[in-house]
Amino acid sequence: MRSGITMASTLPYKISVLVFLENQAGEHLLILRKKAPNFGHWSPIGGKLEMALGESPFECAVRETGEETGLRIAIADLHLFAMIAEKAYEGETHWLMFLFRCRRRLEALPPDIAEGHFSFFNRDAIGRLPIPETDRAALWPIYDRYRDSFVALRADCAPGRPVQVIIEQVTPPPA
Fold first, then answer.
1. Looking at CB atoms within 10 Å, which of 9, 61, 100, 106 has the fewest?
2. Is residue 1 part of a domain?
3. CATH number for the domain that contains residue 154
4. Parent domain of 103
5. Phi, psi of 137, rounded to the nearest 5 degrees
6. Residues linked to residue 152 through DSSP beta bridges, in sequence order
């Protein structure tokens, strides 16, 4: 046993991005997921890195934004505000997630895609939606506090226990 983790229980590790997009009114674009993970829950758009191609998290965020919303953005339109290492998410996998805030605003609601249905929500309404428990406990509070700076965190998401989030580093926004 190292650092409180039993090495005998290995889970796959996946790398993904989430992209926080807003419309002109400052409402957040969320997708009601039709597929796992987060089936039946509202969440920001995103996806897994094309690791076989050597895709970077920024390249993945640009690609996923275009594929899911039709919005064509550049790397310069993105601000990386968080990196989260989630241990044992839903007891099935570990995730390394890169969270981006897109500086470009959406002008209209994107059409539905195979992954789900889109809608815009103001920040207060998001707390009343069916969202993953890790999003409620960690993701949205992280967004609220660090969206203009950078934070590296780890989260223990093992089933049957409350999500525990530990901040590993914070970089304040430029003065």
1. 9
2. no
3. 3.90.79.10
4. 13-171
5. -80, -30
6. 83, 169
Q: Tell me the pairing of strands 13-20 and 28-33.
A: unpaired
Residue whose pair of structure tokens reads 């707390």 in the numeric block:
127
Q: How far apart are the first and last CA of the chain?
A: 43
Give me 172's structure tokens: 């304040």
Give CA separation, 129 vs 42, 106, 120, in Å.
Answer: 7, 21, 12
The tokens describing 94, both together, are 């570990």
The two tokens of residue 46 are 């995103």
- Averaged pLDDT of the chain: 91
Residue 166 is encoded by which pair of tokens? Answer: 């530990």
Among 114, 93, 104, 105, smallest CA distance to 158 is for 93
**Residue listed under structure tokens 């989630």:** 86
Residue 67 belongs to some domain of the structure: yes
Per 3-state DSSP, the chain is made up of helix, strand and coil in percentages (nearest 5) of 20, 40, 40
**Which helix (DSSP H) or strand (DSSP E) does residue 133 occupy?**
helix 133-134
Q: How many CA atoms lie within 13 A of 30 on its CB side?
A: 22
- Provide the b/e sequence for 24-33 (b: ≥16 CB within 10 Å): eeebbbbbbb
DSSP strand E in 65-163: where?
78-89, 93-102, 116-121, 150-156
Residue from 36, 157, 25, 149 nearest 99 by CA: 149
Contact residues for 3 (Cβ-Cβ < 8 A; gap 6+): none
pLDDT digits (tens, 9 = 90+) for 77-129: 999 999 999 888 777 889 899 999 999 999 999 999 999 999 999 999 999 99
